[in-house]
Amino acid sequence: MGEVANCPRCNGIFIKGSSVVCPNCKQKEESDFQAVYTFMRKKQNRTAVVAEIVAKTGVSEERIRQFVKQKRLHPSQFPNLDYPCEKCGTSISEGRICKGCREDITRGVAVDERNKALENRKRAAEKERVSRTYYSVEND
């Protein structure tokens, strides 16, 4: 049995199951998707940009970009569909972040790994230096 939750869109109460929104909002989302998909299926509309789709279907730009992000609308079939990078906002057609941000993150991880390796070498050298110290004990 699902748990009772508030719908994040309309704040209505529903039993949370496979969907994170209430049945009414889910139905609205599906009707929006069908409107966009029906519009995009026409050959002359396949290269439409998001602003044009919004004007013709009445579906919000955010919702259309959500469909692309959820892979319900594929940019390979509709080349002018995109959504913003989660880090910098650049338009992308796949993944969560753009290539530039991905490279920045990769460089940051590499620098962090080099710093950790250097720190480990310093600790090992310090430990070796300390372990070479000889102590003498005086017997009185």
Task: Please give a structural write-up.
The chain is mostly helical and 140 residues long. Among the domains are: 30-94; 98-129. The protein has four helices and four strands; from the N terminus they run ββαααββα. It has helices at residues 23-41, 50-57, 61-69, 99-131, and strands spanning 3-6, 13-16, 83-84, 91-92. The strands form two sheets. The protein has a two-stranded antiparallel ribbon with strand order 1-2.
Q: What's this entry about, in short?
A:
The chain has 140 residues and is mainly α. It is built from 4 helices and 4 strands.
List the keywords:
140 residues; mainly alpha; two-stranded antiparallel ribbon; elongated
Secondary-structure map:
Blueprint: E1 3-6, E2 13-16, H1 23-41, H2 50-57, H3 61-69, E3 83-84, E4 91-92, H4 99-131
Antiparallel strand pairs: 1-2, 3-4
3D shape: elongated
Number of β-strand runs:
4
| Helix/strand order | EEHHHEEH
Q: What level of helicity do the residues show? A: 40-55%
Strand adjacency order, main sheet? 1-2
Per DSSP, the total helix count is 4
**What oligomeric state do these chains adopt?**
single chain
The overall pLDDT, averaged over residues, is 87
Biggest pleated-sheet summary: 2 strands, antiparallel
- Share of β-strand residues: 5-15%
Tell me the Rg in angstroms.
28 Å
Structural class label:
mainly alpha
Low-pLDDT sequence parts = none
**Spatial separation of the terminal alpha carbons:** 81 Å
